[in-house]
Amino acid sequence: MALAAAGELRRRGVPARVLAVLRHGRAVADQAGLTARQRLANLDGALEIVPDGERLLGEGVTVLVDDLMTTGASLAEAGRAVRVRGRVPTAAAVVAFRPRPGG
Fold first, then answer.
1. pLDDT tens digit string along 65-96?
2. Which of 60, 62, 67, 77 could form a cystine bridge with 43, CB 3.0-4.6 A?
3. Contact 73, 81 (CB under 8 A)
4. What is the rounded CA–CA span in Å between residue 79 and residue 40?
């Protein structure tokens, strides 16, 4: 998904590249069936920047990418991990999201 988006941006003259700079630093439980609060707790502090990831991020715009957003816990944790290293995510891109029951 990220590769396709970056390719389209480049075709339109916008410099873009995909960097897999996040990884799990510890084991996490399967998120299926967890409440929003449980998902946040499950992922809290779980992601980290790969070695040399800071150099890879450089000075460009940082966009977090997720396939499906349900509660936002994954994107929140990704943002935390990036901010710990001094970067501020500019945006997040998702393919789909699941609305909360009741709106």
1. 988 888 889 999 999 999 887 888 888 989 88
2. 77
3. no
4. 13
H or E element at residue 97: strand 91-97
17 token code pair: 């590249």
**Do 63 and 34 form a contact (C-beta atoms < 8 A)?**
no
Element (H, E) at 54: helix 53-57
Angle between helices 36-43 and 73-84 (to 10 degrees): 30
d(CA 49, CA 76): 14
Quick check: helix, strand or coil at residue 65?
strand
User: Which of 85, 88, 83 is closest to 55 using CA atoms?
Assistant: 85
Query: Whole-angstrom distance between the N-terminal and C-terminal Cα of the chain?
Result: 27
What are the structure tokens assigned to 93, written together?
């891109």
**The two three-digit tokens of residue 34, written as one number:** 């967890």
pTM: 0.84
